[in-house]
Amino acid sequence: MVNFISISLLIIFVLWLNYEIGKNNRLSNKSKDEFWKKESQANTTRKVDISGLDYISIPLDRLPMEDNPDKTINSYRNTILSHSDKKILNLSGFSNTELKLKYGAANINLLSEYDNNYTVLVSILHKWGERLYINDYLKEALAVLEVALDCKTDNHKTFELLAEIYKKQGSYYKIDLLMDRLSSAPVRDKKALLLKLQEFKART
After folding, report:
1. Best CA proximity match to 140, nearest among 49, 71, 77, 54
2. Residue 41 and residue 38: Cα distance in Å, rounded?
3. Which of 122, 73, 116 minimizes the C-alpha distance to 96?
4. Alpha-carbon distance 8 to 83, whole Å?
5. Does domain 49-202 sit in CATH 1.25.40?
6. Where do runs of H (alpha helix) occur along the chain?
7. pLDDT tens-digit profile of 67-87?
8. Fewer beta carbons within 10 Å, N or C terminal of the chain?
């Protein structure tokens, strides 16, 4: 009797498992079909004018451009200088398919290049500001990190380091301004970062 019940339960489990596998396969195939249909449409989308997009300009006049005894700091500055004449766009919220649908397949290589320029920009600005801060160039670090904000950085560490500096200065109102700015910024996991900044401010 016990063996019969065990076998029955096993059969029921196998039937249920086969049903779930089949269901998942059907959903997966449907998703694949939808993706390739969308991709096919994207690849035939006509090229549109992208000259009027919201390009990012680097305000070099606000950055500490003088030579520094630290060669790493100078290398970060030089990288930013080399990007100052490049076109820069933050397109991290879009997939390649979405970009092709919106701006045309013929623009995808240019858009990818401009987005890569953005990635380099915000990464190097953070490293530059952090290096300045570590080496006790507080004023210069603030200048670099605040320029990163104006360049629409989505780097969590930049927001966190700025909050740390503002707290060190006793400028708690600037942490509030930072959180206000974050609320309208195109940053992933925004709620988690806002919570972290709030907790950081509370630890007085």
Report:
1. 77
2. 5
3. 116
4. 68
5. yes
6. 2-43, 71-83, 96-103, 108-134, 138-150, 156-169, 172-183, 190-202
7. 999 999 999 999 999 999 999
8. N
Question: Which residues are CB-contacts of 199 (< 8 A; sequence separation ≥ 6)?
Answer: none
3-state DSSP assignment of residue 87 = coil
Residue 204 tokens read as 């007085």
> Residue 89, SS3?
coil
Distance of CA 5 to the CA centre of its chain: 55
For the chain, the domains span 1-44, 49-202
User: Does the predicted TM-score (pTM) go above 0.85?
Assistant: no
Query: How far, in Å, are 12, 13, 71, 87, 100 from residue 5 at the CA level?
Result: 11, 12, 75, 70, 57
Give CA torsion, residues 191, 157, 180, 117, to 10 deg. Answer: -100
